[in-house]
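Fill in residues.
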């Protein structure tokens, strides 16, 4: 599975941005998909995930502001980010794992999101 993230950019505090992750190589129907992020000088952290059935879960820091969705017909997963804060500034990565796997084995290259204060 190859993952390609896109849509990052510069946005002001309180603004919105949607990043996308397109997959190729395999149909993602049976895969769980997740978004991670890594801020400068910090460790990578999970933002949220969506199972192949559409169940979503989010980190406490983004609950109520971020939303993950997937379009299996387009083999794409989206991260809608609203109410952005400067602390959301990070490189955002998408990842995939086959349902039942313990870890995410497939990773995209990341897209930079910068939130200005």
């Amino acid at each position: 599975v190859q993952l390609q993230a896109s849509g990052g950019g510069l946005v002001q505090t309180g603004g919105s941005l949607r990043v996308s992750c397109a997959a190729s190589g395999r149909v993602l129907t049976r895969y769980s998909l997740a978004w991670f992020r890594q801020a400068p000088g910090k460790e990578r952290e999970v933002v949220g995930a969506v199972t192949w059935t559409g169940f979503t879960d989010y980190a406490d820091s983004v609950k109520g502001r971020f939303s993950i969705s997937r379009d299996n017909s387009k083999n794409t997963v989206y991260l809608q980010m609203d109410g952005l804060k400067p602390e959301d500034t990070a490189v955002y990565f998408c990842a995939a794992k086959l349902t039942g796997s313990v870890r995410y084995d497939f990773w995209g290259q990341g897209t930079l999101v910068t939130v200005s204060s």
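Residues 5 and 21 are 4 Å apart (CA to CA).
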